[in-house]
């Protein structure tokens, strides 16, 4: 299966029905064990936490804390390179039941099928398995979260913060020397656990109210959880961090919309529009956050262009002019974007930053 937004392929180890039942039971057990252990900096695949919560807390660190530098880090092929021996060592810290440990070990080594051929797996977590996210959280809890909290922050001269969602994380620092020291230490830390920093995707940038643009006009930006974060100002001229949909995510989504419309252009028009409305609703639920409405409206404009193009190719005769197309959209209207997530609403997230 292709990794979204790239041409890179990853093997899928899809469990059968019986395995899924067992894995779901294991997930409940592991959540009960580890939920109290996991730190507040971790947001991925945890009860009552999500991407928007991670974005809200990161926004606090960027706007309200003395953040001047950001380490935008990426772990190279994390889910494909989790070391099984280390994973089992981590699990044994909290689990004494040998039967439970044996079952987890069996799922780790489940392997995958490709073109009818079975391949064994001696590393990585099974892609497609419901147990993979919680195992990934356990692994990074020991490899990254605890290390950052107990070692990195104590060695920093200034303030330091981390926000992690699965294997995607951002670290904020007050001083550049702390950021550089962390980056150097991170490489060695990950090597110890058979992981590797994707150096082409990991950078240290000046970011925050005192960001240095180095004569380029604007401070650099970074991507996190599908959004490009950039320095800006409020209407009152105060420092603000704003977000817009990352270009890579826009291109990938428009490509999938194009391929679906091309393949299904002869379908009943009511079914096409119903599917398109549902797709836009899901897109808006995630991307319609504070300051991003304009980018989502631009996305909607391109979707309309794709719809116009492929509806005109339902037959050899051209079906629509733009005027007729606009009349058609009045009969089958597409949802207009509006802010659905207020990035400054911390009612459900305030405990993370106290």
Automatic annotation (TrEMBL):
Enzyme class name:
transferase
Could you tell me the EC number(s) of this protein? Answer: 2.7.7.49
Q: Name one Pfam family in it.
A: RVT_1
Taxonomically, the superkingdom here is Bacteria
- The Reverse transcriptase domain, residue ranges: 1-229
Kindly give the SUPFAM superfamilies that the UniProt entry links to this protein. DNA/RNA polymerases
Instruction: Write one Gene Ontology MF term.
Output: RNA-directed DNA polymerase activity
Keywords assigned by UniProt?
Nucleotidyltransferase, RNA-directed DNA polymerase, Transferase
Keyword tRNA processing applies:
no
Give start-end of the signal peptide: none
| CDD domains recorded | RT_G2_intron
Q: PANTHER family, per this entry?
A: NUCLEAR INTRON MATURASE 1, MITOCHONDRIAL-RELATED, PROTEIN YKFC
- The protein here is known as Group II intron reverse transcriptase/maturase
To which species is this protein native? Oceanobacillus bengalensis
């Amino acid at each position: 299966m292709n990794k979204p937004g790239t041409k890179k392929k990853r093997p899928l180890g899809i469990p059968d029905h019986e395995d899924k039942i067992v894995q779901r039971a294991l997930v409940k057990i592991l959540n009960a064990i580890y939920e109290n252990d996991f730190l507040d900096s971790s947001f991925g695949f945890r009860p009552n936490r999500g991407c928007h919560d991670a974005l809200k807390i990161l926004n606090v660190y960027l706007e309200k804390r003395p953040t001047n530098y950001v380490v935008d880090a990426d772990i190279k092929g994390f889910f494909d390179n989790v070391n099984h021996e280390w994973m089992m060592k981590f699990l044994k810290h909290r689990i004494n039941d040998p039967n439970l440990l044996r079952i987890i070990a069996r799922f780790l080594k489940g392997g995958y099928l490709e073109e009818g051929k079975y391949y064994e797996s001696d590393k990585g977590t099974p892609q497609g398995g419901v147990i993979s996210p919680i195992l990934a959280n356990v692994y990074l809890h020991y490899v990254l979260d605890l290390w950052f909290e107990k070692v990195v922050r104590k060695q920093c001269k200034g303030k330091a913060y981390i926000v992690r969602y699965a294997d995607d994380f951002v670290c904020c620092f007050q001083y550049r020397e702390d950021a550089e020291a962390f980056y150097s230490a991170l490489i060695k830390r990950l090597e110890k656990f058979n992981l590797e920093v994707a150096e082409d995707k990991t950078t240290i940038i000046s970011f925050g109210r005192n960001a240095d643009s180095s004569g380029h006009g604007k401070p650099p930006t970074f991507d996190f959880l599908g959004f490009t974060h950039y320095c800006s100002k409020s209407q009152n001229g105060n420092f603000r961090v704003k977000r817009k949909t990352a270009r890579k995510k826009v291109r990938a989504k428009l490509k999938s919309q194009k391929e679906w419309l091309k393949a299904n252009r002869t379908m009943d028009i009511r079914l096409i529009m119903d599917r398109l409305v549902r797709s836009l609703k899901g897109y808006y639920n995630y991307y319609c956050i504070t300051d991003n409405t304009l980018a989502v409206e631009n996305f909607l404009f391109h979707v309309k262009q794709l719809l116009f193009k492929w509806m005109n190719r339902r037959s050899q005769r051209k079906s629509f002019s733009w005027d007729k197309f606009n009349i058609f959209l009045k009969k089958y209207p597409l949802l207009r974007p509006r802010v659905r997530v207020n990035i400054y609403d911390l009612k459900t997230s305030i405990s993370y930053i106290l």
